[in-house]
Amino acid sequence: MADRGDSAFFPYQYETYDLPNGLRAILIPMSGSGLVAYYSIVRTGSRDEVEPGRTGFAHFFEHMMFRGTKRYPAEVYDRLVTEMGADANAYTTDDYTCYYLVVSRENLERVMDLESDRFQNLAYDELSFKTEAGAVYGEYRKSRVNPWAVLYEALLNTAFDRHTYKHTTIGFEEDIQKMPTGYQYSRRFFKRFYRPDNVVLLIVGDIDVEATKKLIDRYYGQWEKGYVPPDIPPEPGQKKERFKEVTYPGKTLPIVAVAYKGDAFDPTNKMIAAAYLLGNLAFGQTSEIYKKLVIREQKVQFIQSDFGFHRDPKLLTIFSMVKKEEDIPYVRQEIDRTVRRFRNQLVEAEQLEREKKHTRYSFLMGLDTPDHVASRLARWIALTADLRAVDQLHANMAQLTPEDIRAAAQRYFVKAQRTVIILKGEQ
Amino acid sequence: MKQTITLPIFVILSLFWGCSLQKGEENMVLLPVADDPTISFRILFKVGSQNDPRGKEGLAALTAAMITNGATKTRSYEAILDLLYPMAAYINSQVDKEMTVIYGRVHRDNLDDYYALLKEVLFEPAFDEKDFQRVKSNFLNYVQRTLRYADDEELGKEVLYEFIFQGTPYQHLEEGHVKSLQSITLEEVKNFYRTYYTRENVLIGLGGGFEASFPERMKADFAVLPAGNPPAVPPPQPRPFEGLHVRIVEKAARATAISFGYPIGVTRGSREFYALALATSWLGEHRNSSSHLYQVIREKRGLNYGDYAYIEHFPNGGRRQFPPTNIARRQQIFQIWIRPVPNEARLFAFRAALRELQKLVDNGMSREEFELTRKFLKNYILHFAPTTMMKLGYAMDDVFYGIKGHHLEIFRKMMDELTLQEVNQAIKTYFQYRNIKAVFVTADGQALKQALVNNTPSPIQYPTPKPAEILEEDQEIAAYPLRVKPEHVEIIPVDRVFED
Q1: Which of B81, B107, B378 shows the shortest C-beta gap to A85?
Q2: What is B16-222's CATH number, 3.40.50.261, 3.40.50.300, 3.40.640.10, 3.30.830.10?
């Protein structure tokens, strides 16, 4: 196990194991449960959808990964996973695609056999490809009734011009409709992105590290490298505030979204750590604006921030659901006032310490089962391919001062780089 | 690599049946896990939406929410949030038909502060008027907008529960109806609290790394709850019905969410329950591609995102993989959930699911299906309660169901013991496809009504080619007979649902 020193924040020992073909495995033994969480993280998501008309394809392709290989056709794969009683599924995000199985430890080798096979030898016919496109459209339809789906699509589409963050992970509807015609493209997609040098295995739970490494050699050693990163167009600097009003075809309270441009995730960058804390300090459950608008004045149903981490510069967003339409300008004013305050004034040191404590406990208390550990780490691994990011960012966070928080507010809360979306119900 | 592996701060807990669960105290369920650095609390009161007075539907849920989302006599709600926040701890509530649970989890570093607050929240709620307005407004927004408009699948399921349990204390949505919520006063909340949050009505659940003396301390502390043994609500007796009854919730929907089922007289603990659980898992294990319905409707035909079956309540299935605990009920329903299908495929998908149910009832499970499913479940059950909090919840539900031993442990054991014959017998006894209540959340309800009543065939057209055997089977599905009397179909505009 790597010696990580006394200052390490992440509470488990782990080993990072690299194969010559570029595949990386991060192994975290957690004894006692008898379970193993096996995560295959492909560092490709909707961010990589650079070709026009192919939005949503990474997600669609995630579905195709369940359509079998020559050795294990879909029905055989399904039967074997069923026999193991695995908690198995997959999901796609903007920055990565994640496939997971949580199984009893005695099934580890079987899982590795199945997963390494489909990642190297996926084979499906055009008919099943077309049928699966129907399921994806069904997923779109069931999600689309939610006002948040409408809001988020409008937000990204307005805030970005060139970068692929312009579209959501599920993609634009017209591209989803065209998916059945993309069979040949899907084969190329597989060859391009499903390569060992673009994948990290995250294996957590009741494992013997040395034995697991040998299995990785055996099952993944022959996988040919060849990942070519897509040429993702950088987003030009935003020069002017953007605004859009959208209508949700149903009843909802109005939602206000105020989004600022952020930076790419870098755990060693102090501003990234400061921005993360800034989101909660300014707009979290114990922030002044929350207490004022949610509890005292009851003007809004809620207010919250999403200042999450992304591979490329994305958004730092504040969302609020407003109870009365006529209060929208007031709520926007209050958000502006909060932003100004954090740009101009120093947060109290005690408040900052409370925020750090919250972040620490929140992260640690979530690490109580192999699956929880793996799911909490997946994004970190996807963004950096390196678990050291957890210790680095938290060490960075521990050092932050009120001046750093103000500096982050000054860096990110810039009006010209802001996008405001107002969503209102139709009826 | 070093040979020594340092003990992580968090050590995974042993499996449920490996833990020394104690049910010694009459009103306590203890689950000590020495190496768990957190402590889990589940304070369960034997009161739920079935105790809501007529016209005051939602009172139990509002009361619980006022306790966990409002001030105490000595602390404002803001101050409570300030206290909880640095600990990353929470105090939440969940209300179902039969029970209310106030629950939370804290790192043992912060136990004293947290526990002091938990007592305050439980024993000295302020029931502040401003908190009441805020909490009530959240409830109304949930019913009027979120449930009616933002989640057609959950809407369909909740309407189905009301449809099946009509005329029983289980009848209404736990969160209440618009009119009833509007009529509830703060005084009624206070009275409800005084009546039901009593010493005799509480079951204390405590799990994790607490010290040995802690349960005694809690027991003594909880003695401050007032005495009171509120009368029990008689078990719900759903009205028998014959034939296929349909409730159409009409809205401008592009896709149709469908749920259907009927009351089923089996609950956790009996051998038959596990036999039916096995059959249900084969027919439609929740969000699992092993589900037969999923294979028929999604995998082969690409009509939607998934299709599942249940013999126990499973709220918010779209957002979770495993069921929550402390939603135990004396009366369950058998239920099939068809995720949204294009409107033009709604009748076809319904017929396909009903036909599969009939095939299961008529033919039972095959040896191969039986063997695969029991093998699956034996391991899959291990995922149901990985945390102390979940294990504790299951243990408390065991108390509710009067189970000797632990449900999940029995479940696993039954997968070894049950025979195919037993499972098929249980299917014959408890599953049926003739007397069904179904809910469609869809547009153009009249057209659907006519098609149902006239048993109009519902041929399907796919945007993409399908193999010949699928197309052949489709013809049978499209003509699958539906016998629906016009008086058994009602169309309700979405804004009338959960209104009165």
Answers
A1: B378
A2: 3.30.830.10
Tell me, what DSSP letter sits at residue B169? Answer: T
User: So where are chain B's domains?
Assistant: 16-222, 244-496
Q: Options 3.30.70.3270, 3.40.50.300, 1.20.1560.10, 3.30.830.10; which CATH number does B244-496 get?
A: 3.30.830.10
Most B CBs within 10 Å, among A15, A361, A371, A373, to test the B interface: A361
Instruction: Return the beta strands (E) in A170-241 as ranges.
Output: 199-205
CB–CB contact A253 B5 (8 Å): no
Q: Which residue type is seen at B132?
A: F
- Residue in chain B closest to A284 (alpha carbons) equals B85
Q: Which residue of chain B has the CA closest to A360?
A: B88
* Residue numbers in A near B288 (CB within 8 A): 82
Structural domains of chain A, with CATH: 15-220 (3.30.830.10), 242-425 (3.30.830.10)
Q: Which residue of A has its CA nearest to B153?
A: A142
ipTM, 2 dp: 0.94
Contact assignment for A209 to B134 by CB distance below 8 Å = no
Which token pair is B393? Answer: 């919840």
Residue of A74, A138, A251 lying closest to B149 (CB–CB): A251
Task: Tell me the angle at which helices B367-380 and B271-284 cross, rounded to the nearest 10 degrees.
Answer: 100
- The answer to whether residue A301 neighbours chain B at the CB level (below 8 Å) is yes
Structure tokens at A243: 């605004």
Tally Cβ neighbours within 10 Å of residue A243.
11
User: Closest Cα of chain B to A260: distance in Å?
Assistant: 26
Would you call A134 and B321 a contact, using CB atoms and an 8 Å cutoff? Answer: no
Task: State the Cα–Cα distance between residues B485 and B243, nearest whole angstrom.
Answer: 8
Q: Kindly give the confidence (pLDDT) of every residue in chain A, 427 residues in length, as a single tens digit, with 9 standing for 90 and above.
A: 655 555 589 999 999 999 999 999 999 999 888 999 999 999 999 999 999 999 999 999 999 999 999 999 999 999 999 999 999 999 999 999 999 999 999 999 999 999 999 999 999 999 989 989 888 998 898 888 899 999 999 999 999 999 999 999 999 999 999 999 999 999 999 999 999 999 999 999 999 999 999 999 999 999 999 999 999 999 999 999 999 999 999 999 999 999 999 999 999 999 999 999 999 999 999 999 999 999 999 999 999 999 999 999 999 999 999 999 999 999 999 999 999 999 999 999 999 999 999 999 999 999 999 999 999 999 999 999 999 999 999 999 999 999 999 999 999 999 999 999 999 998 6
- Looking at the partner chain, which of B1, B13, B378 has a beta carbon nearest the beta carbon of A32? B13
Which class for B401: exposed (0-12), middle (13-18), buried (19 or more C-beta within 10 A)? middle
